[in-house]
Design goal:
It is a single chain. By secondary structure, this protein is mainly α. 69% of the residues lie in helices and 8% in strands. The strands form three sheets. The protein has a three-stranded antiparallel beta sheet with strand order 1-3-2, covered by helices on one side. Strand 4 and strand 5 form a beta hairpin. Helix 9 packs across helix 11. The radius of gyration is 52 Å and the shape is flat.
């Protein structure tokens, strides 16, 4: 079938018209559907709005009712408060009236008392005038004469009472102080290890001795020159390092142990190991200082002070380790300060740092107290701690209560048996000098040094020395001992005057 162009064009136009009509129909249906949905949504929204309005009205009504109830409650409270205030006002008015009446009554009483006092004074003056006329003495003269008579009559009794009171108070103070010191010593007990002037290094084999000595003694001379110690080879399996300086001795011991482990012993290695030992010792000193501060419960010291504190572990005083002595003093001072109710922290710090100057007194000129004061001031230690530590040898006056405690702790620590050690020869010579000095006084019969030289018992001739002379003799002996002898701690002088009366019944 052949379609003519005219027919094809007509069909195309008809198709376009049909498509347009279909689209219009579909659009009309969608429009009707959208309008229906919109009407439905408007209806739903209107319904919801009406519900919200009703709920809001109900809520508003409830809030209004609550506000009205709260207003009524407050009104009742205000009425009650107003009623209480009115009652208090009435009470205060009545109280004010009572006070006014009492003031008037007191004023009248004071006026009456003044009048009575005036009359009494007038009568007293008249009585004194009559007594002065009768006795022929003025008031002041009679008073002085009466007091003089009473003083003369009761002089001996008053003197005896004062002496008795003084003795009782002194005994009480001594008893209390002894209790505190004894309690502190019992609570703190520490073993004492006296440091020697030598250290021993064990050798794993005899062959190492030759290496340590070196060819023609080259190695051992280098070692002694660099460390400042003396090496003694007199035992089969050990070496002895001798030096009065514990710090140098410790460096030498550490370096020698390093050389033995390394096995290569020659001058260059010796120098290298000595430098390593010095660095390790600095770290060890710091750790020792921190451990000491921790043991004494003092945790706010500067790191420079901690380092110097650790160096005290390598210092000795009369054979006693200075750091051990300082830690012991800190514990004793803390316990005594706690018992006496003074500043425990200041007392403990003053005791722990009292010998800090000894860490550098071999390097810088000056005594350890002055050096210690300068060190503590330099690193910001408080003035209370400096005052507590500077008086332990009585170079400075005792400025605070803590300074007395530090000095007492120093004496307790140093005087404890076994804490310090002199040689036997020095010990015997010191006791002999002490007895010889006391026997040089007139009236002394015999003298004995006891308690390791801490006490001297002096027996006097009673015909030459009376009771007051015995007191004077004790003071003179103490003064001479202080001026002529050197000793650690203190010495008690006990002068004994004994009279024996003997008779026989036949």
């Amino acid at each position: 079938m052949i379609i003519t162009p005219v027919l094809a064009g007509g069909l195309a136009i008809a198709g376009l018209i049909a498509g347009y009509l279909v689209r219009q129909f579909i659009a009309l249906r969608q429009l009707n559907s959208t309008e229906a949905k919109t009407r439905e949504q408007l209806k739903t929204a209107k319904t919801q709005a009406e519900e919200v309005i009703l709920a809001a009205k109900d809520r508003a009504a409830n809030l209004l009712e609550e506000a009205q109830q709260e207003e009524r409650s407050r009104k009742v409270q205000f009425e009650r408060l107003e009623e209480r205030l009115l009652r208090k006002e009435d009470f205060l008015d009545k109280r004010s009236l009572d006070i006014d009446e009492r003031e008037k009554s007191i004023g009248k009483g004071l006026e009456e008392l003044k009048e009575t006092k005036t009359k009494i004074d007038e009568l007293g003056l008249k009585a004194i005038e009559k007594l002065e006329k009768i006795s022929g003495l003025s008031h002041q003269q009679a008073k002085e004469q009466l007091l003089g008579n009473l003083e003369n009559f009761h002089r001996e009794e008053l003197t005896s009472l004062l002496q008795k009171f003084e003795k009782e108070k002194r005994d009480e103070i001594e008893k209390k102080s002894l209790e505190i010191i004894t309690a502190s010593l019992q609570r703190y007990s520490r073993s004492h290890v006296a440091d020697l002037t030598t250290s021993v290094v064990a050798l794993p084999s005899e062959e190492l001795k030759g290496k340590i000595i070196g060819r023609e003694g080259r190695n051992i001379r280098t070692f002694e020159r660099l460390t400042g110690v003396e090496v003694i080879i007199d035992a089969p399996e050990s070496l002895t390092i001798s030096s009065f300086d514990p710090l140098r001795r410790e460096i030498a011991k550490m370096a020698l142990e390093k050389l033995i482990r390394d096995g290569r012993i020659q001058p260059v290695k010796i120098e290298e190991k000595i430098e390593e030992a010095k660095q390790e010792l600095d770290q060890r000193i710091k750790e020792i200082g921190e451990a000491a501060a921790y043991e004494a419960s003092i945790l706010d010291l500067p790191k420079e002070i901690i380092f110097l504190l650790g160096k005290l572990n390598y210092r000795t005083s009369y054979g006693q380790n200075v750091l051990v002595h300082s830690i012991e003093m800190a514990h004793l001072a803390g316990m005594m300060a706690s018992e006496l109710g003074v500043n425990v922290e200041v007392a403990k710090k003053g005791a722990l740092l009292h010998d800090i100057g000894k860490a550098i007194d071999h390097e810088i000129e000056g005594n350890h107290i002055e050096l210690g004061r300068k060190i503590l001031k330099k690193y910001g230690i408080s003035e209370e701690v400096i005052k507590a530590m500077e008086s332990h040898h009585e170079d400075y006056p005792f400025a605070t209560s803590e300074s007395f405690i530090v000095a007492a702790a120093d004496i307790l620590s140093t005087a404890r048996p076994g804490a310090r050690r002199d040689t036997l020869e020095n010990y015997l010579r010191r006791l002999g000098d002490l007895e010889k000095l006391v026997l040089g006084f007139e009236g002394v019969k015999v003298a004995y040094a006891v308690s390791g030289g801490r006490e001297i018992r002096v027996f006097v001739i009673p015909e030459k020395i009376d009771d007051f002379g015995a007191l004077r003799l004790a003071r003179d002996i103490a003064a001479k001992i202080q001026s002529e002898l050197k000793y650690p701690g203190e010495i008690k002088i006990n002068v004994i005057r004994e009279i024996r009366a003997v008779e026989y019944a036949r």
